Amino acid sequence: MGVRDRKAMNMELQQSWNKRAQMYANRMDKLMNSLEYQNQWKENLQLLLGSCQGLEILDIGTGSGFLAFQLVRLGQRVIGLDFSEEMLRIAESKAQSLNLDCSFVFGNAVNLPFPAERFDTIVCRHLLYSLNDRSLVFTEWLRVLRSGGRVAIWDGDWTARNMLPFAQLQLTSKKQIPRRYATIKRQGAFKREQEPNMLHNEVIMELKAAGFINIKIFKMDIKNTFGDREIKLECECLFITAQRP
């Protein structure tokens, strides 16, 4: 893909996220603001970070700030980065209303507006699917990490798109839902069921090529709840950590 094509695609994605930022934030609040969901993330983040506090952490693709807020509550110093101005506006507003000390910066994952060796940890959640050149991205992430710093990636097989909104619609709507939206459990379960393993292997090779070491894969158990009901999505989670030498 040429530079001009890449810029055009990034601009299109940016405009798309700006348009749907508020809708996305409202939809995610229904899931992520539940105490049960927050506690699940707290436990998993504590396993990742241990008892360390005051770490300089960059949350790339922060969106409306959910992951950044969980890290701040654990005593970390967090900057959330996103290329959607509207997402950043929402995240800043939420941080203020929650009285959380969290900074937000406009930027792109492949061209970070930070000096070398700036952060102890980089985290990203559900970002890989939107990255065109992961090899270039991982090289840039390595640049801004301090020696011994780590990257933590949470993602999954989103081949059929994130079906959670349609699952929520099934639980709340009295109208008949189009069949193509209703078949939730088809996500990653049929023609492309090998995609998660392929994605694991690709990401591991790309991280190694960028210069990362101690690459590890973990199973992360996060349940999706909506009200008093649990929604099971047939999506294999991808959770990888790696370290800068």
Describe this structure as you would to a colleague.
With 245 residues, the chain is α/β, with parallel strands linked by helices. The protein contains eight helices and nine strands. The strands form two sheets. Strands 3-2-1-4-5-9-6 form a seven-stranded mixed sheet, with helices on both faces. Helix 1 runs parallel beside helix 4 and helix 5 crosses helix 8. The two termini are 30 Å apart. 31% of the residues are buried.
Mean pLDDT: 77
Count every helix, treating DSSP H or I runs of 4 or more residues as helices.
8
Distance between the termini: 30 Å
Roughly how many Å is the radius of gyration? 18 Å
Spell out the key features of this protein:
245 residues; alpha/beta; seven-stranded mixed sheet; two-stranded antiparallel sheet; 8 helices; 44% helix; 22% strand
Q: Topology of this structure?
A:
Layout: H1 3-32, H2 35-49, E1 56-60, H3 66-73, E2 77-82, H4 85-98, E3 103-106, E4 119-125, H5 134-144, E5 145-156, H6 164-172, H7 179-182, H8 195-210, E6 213-218, E7 224-226, E8 229-231, E9 237-243
Parallel strand pairs: 1-2, 1-4, 2-3, 4-5
Antiparallel strand pairs: 5-9, 6-9, 7-8
Helix pairs in contact: 1-4, 5-8
